[in-house]
């Protein structure tokens, strides 16, 4: 019974994390518009902070929740904490990836397309 409870809790957390990732897809385009206004040095710092803060928060929280983890189940407070920390991790990793993509592809996608064929005006 308890082993089934552990898997049910884990699947519930996974559903929340996937939901956060799907919601994040909706936030990407408005976020890219805001990121275009930020200078490149600030983007580098923000991207690094987002990518490194996510794991720090997640592992710190897992350490804090370790007393609520048992081989067959998680206590409710630990499950809620781990689910929330996992959602924060997903959001921060998505933010960091969006910032890095803006740094790498920003100049390419923001410029108008050029043609390889020279066209003469008639």
Q: What this model shows, in words?
A:
The protein has three helices and no strands. It has helices at residues 2-35, 40-65, 76-110. The longest helix has 35 residues, at 76-110.
Note the total helix count: 3
The ordered H/E elements are: HHH
Oligomer kind: single chain
Beta-strand content estimate: under 5%
Low-confidence stretches: none
Instruction: Assign an overall shape.
Output: elongated
User: How many strands?
Assistant: 0
**Can you summarize the main beta sheet?**
none
Radius of gyration: 21 Å
Q: How confident is the prediction overall: mean pLDDT?
A: 83
Q: Give the proportion of residues in helices.
A: over 70%
Q: Please report the distance between the alpha carbons of the first and last residues.
A: 80 Å
Helix-and-strand structural type: mainly alpha
Q: Outline of this structure?
A:
The protein has helices at residues 2-35, 40-65, 76-110.
Keywords:
single chain, 0% strand, 122 residues, mainly alpha
List the helices and strands and how they pair.
Layout: H1 2-35, H2 40-65, H3 76-110
Helix pairs in contact: 1-3, 2-3
